[in-house]
Amino acid sequence: MTQTNIKNKTFADLYSGTKDFLLPNIVRKKSTNLFDKIKLPNNKTENWRKFNSDSIFKHNYKLGKKLSVETKDLDSLSFFEPSGNYVILVNGFFHSGNVKNTDLNNNIFIGSLKDAQKTHSEIISGRLNTQNTETENYFSVLNDAYAKDGAFIYVPENVILDEPIYIMHFIQSDNGNIFSQNRNLIIAGKNTAFKIIHTYHSLSSDFSFNNSLTDIFADEKAQLEYYLFEGEGNTAAHVNNININSEKGSSFKSNIVTFCGSVVRNNIYAEFKNEFAEVNLQGIYMPDKEQTVDNFIEIKHAKPNCRSNQIFKGIIDNKAVAVFTGKVFVAKDAQKTDSAQSNQNLLLTDYARVHSRPQLEIYADDVVCSHGSTTGQLDNEALFYMKTRGIPEKRAKTMLMKAFLRDVTDKINVTGYREYVNFLISKRLKGQSPESLCSVKVCPSC
Amino acid sequence: MLKITDLKAEVDGKEILRGINLEVKPGEVHAIMGPNGSGKSTLASVLAGRDIFKVTGGKVEFKGKNLLNLIPEERSREGIFLAFQYPVEIPGVSITNFMRAAVDEHRKHKGFDPMNASQFLRYMKEKKALVELDAKLEGRAVNEGFSGGEKKKNEIFQMAMLEPDLAILDETDSGLDIDALKVVANGVNKLKTKENATIVITHYQRLLDYIVPDIIHVLYNGRIVKTGGRELALELEKYGYDEIKKEADKRF
Q: What domain range includes position B246?
């Protein structure tokens, strides 16, 4: 297959002759029509102003195929437990999966969304096509129109899992630049409690563009911890749409580590569908070289008595760019909303840039909403103090940067994964390049 | 040990030290007193290597080396310790990790291997007891949320950990109640040996009731204008700085 320039709406060409799309044709027809109307975001598109689509669309791509991944490629991912619950996808296609045998036959599903459409159609049907004008954008519509597979995680009512469920995506090129999409659905049933570690990696150094969409449902009183790791290589672009639906009394806690990627856009939308729910979004990003990390977050307090909290911290090196937009919408009836937001950035060079935009839109009158954004350099007073104790500048800086990220990394509640993240951060802060750290094929501990 | 000759320094083009001469020998305790703005803290900062102060003249020899050629971390490893007037808060860095890094670097400089975790914790426990530091401080971030007294005690604890040849205590008594002052002074006295030296910088003579100096210098307008024994402090306590100021203004 030849590579196609996809800038000029040629996704239809790219996908022509292929079949087995995920969404029903009737929905897809709507999406493809809509896609023809939506413009590729540019610097005049609200919510996407700083998004650098040129760096993605200047390359030609071909569709990623259903390829295999070798188990030795997983060795460097020390947090991964091959005997645990997992699903592995390559270029957006299901590769392998495992559901750990438990005494309780709990009807947990961990596997391919495409496959699950046959076995779990009732559960999936109302939850696969839930995009609305608030979540719709160029990339979500593209995903609606052409996504073929992804992960499906279903944990039914009252199930509590101690061990995490892994969703691991790999980009693998057989030759040339790859475009791939994945569509994931996570359903945390009523009264469930579990953790997900959702990771993205690339196995090749060709350019790639990955368009992900994940719908998450936290049903009544569900407690879901969602850890997202974006570790695709320095030649990988990633747009990640994540939609969170919070039902009554549910708790959704997420932690997003954006470690690599040439251009990464996280488009996170959380909506409180009922009262007494909590959404806690934390993230760290460490763009280097000419990377761009763009976090766009929108939380809709549609119902009263809910809590949301955002803490995003970034260390921006070289000529990298970080963008943070944190939007909180509080509807007229959403009284007793408690919402906090904080974005803190450390700039390591004169060329590193940050665009931080907290936005509050409040229509209720009995709410507590706070927001704050800081951008600065390392504290020179602290650096001098450390030096007077004999600690050299480089070590002192590393200690201060780790300390800066610590309140976010410490909240990672899965030991092996937390250690993996801390290990990568340490290496990175000591000056190791993101290319070498993000290449799954190079064992980072070697 | 320390020999300062005609040291001049400025900040933002403003001359603060105008020719300091001072010699400190092993085993001595020197006090530097003086009115506000006389240059006491500047002298301490210059000796520690703070780069906002520009040295414009003179020299400083420390254990035979040209101190002014060393960067702050090298000065520390060579044996200079500055107890800060305002110790800096470092959120997210625990005292244990902070001291571990510092002690590691000092040992490396002396050609020793780093201590293992249990050796280090034992060492820390020993030094904590010596300076009567509360056990609960160690799990906390460096100086974060500490009271004034806790911050100063923490400085003395760090001094105990690093065992400097020359300790410079910059207004260590400021903001301390009498009980905290006693604990701090007691720590300093316990760390005193025949081989090391201490420079106590203070505005008031109160601290000198507890840390008894051998020699007292009065710093005024960037110069040492008077040097004497213990009795000088009592004289200053009684008559204030006015007489000395008048006399100095005539001379310079």
A: 2-251
Closest CB from A390, A399, A400 relative to B76 = A390
* Cβ <8 Å between B92 and A390: no
* Tens-place pLDDT, residues B115-136: 999 999 999 999 998 888 876 7
Q: How far is B231 from chain A (nearest CA, A)?
A: 33
CA-based nearest residue in chain A for residue B103: A390
d(CA B159, CA B166) in angstroms, rounded, equals: 10
Max alpha carbon distance in chain B (Å)?
Answer: 61
Residues B73, A399: C-beta atoms closer than 8 Å: no
Residues of B with CB under 8 A from a CB of A: 48-50, 71-73, 75-77, 81-82, 84, 87-93, 97-99, 101-102, 105-106, 109, 141, 158, 162
Does the structure show a pLDDT above 80 at A250? yes
Q: How many domains does chain B have?
A: 1
Query: Three-class SS of residue B101?
Result: helix
Mean pLDDT for B224-235 is 89
**Nearest CA-CA partner of A114 in A66, A72, A151, A161:** A151
**Lowest-confidence range among A90-104, A138-152, B97-111?**
A90-104
A75-79, A176-180, A310-314, range with greatest mean pLDDT? A310-314
- The stretch B223-252 carries a mean pLDDT of 86
Query: A313 pLDDT band (50/70/90 cuts)?
Result: very high
Write down the mean pLDDT value for chain B.
Answer: 92
Reading phi first (left if > 0) and then psi (alpha if -120 to 50, else beta), residue B13 is in: left
Cβ–Cβ below 8 Å for A391 and B82? no
A395 touches chain B (CB under 8 A): yes
Q: In this structure, what are the phi and psi dihedrals at residue A344, rounded to the nearest 5 degrees?
A: -125, 135
> How does pLDDT run across B7-18, given as a tens digit for each residue?
999 999 999 999
Cβ neighbours of residue A133 under 8 Å, at least 6 residues apart?
A: none
Contact present, B76 and A387 (Cβ < 8 Å) = yes
- Residues of B with Cβ-Cβ distance to A391 under 8 angstroms: 73, 98, 101-102, 105
* CATH number (domain holding residue B126): 3.40.50.300
Which residues, listed in sequence order, are joined to residue A186 by a DSSP beta bridge? A153, A216
Q: Do B88 and A402 touch (CB under 8 A)?
A: no
The Cα–Cα gap between A372 and A297 comes to 15
Q: Name the phi and psi angles at B221, rounded to 5.
A: 50, 35
Quick: pLDDT tens for A25-74. Answer: 888 888 888 888 888 888 888 889 888 888 888 888 899 999 888 878 88
Nearest to A388 among B48, B97, B106 (CB): B48
How does residue A446 score in pLDDT terms, banded at 50, 70 and 90? very low
**From B72, B98, B109, residue closest to A387, measured CB to CB:** B72
Nearest chain B Cα distance for residue A187, angstroms: 36
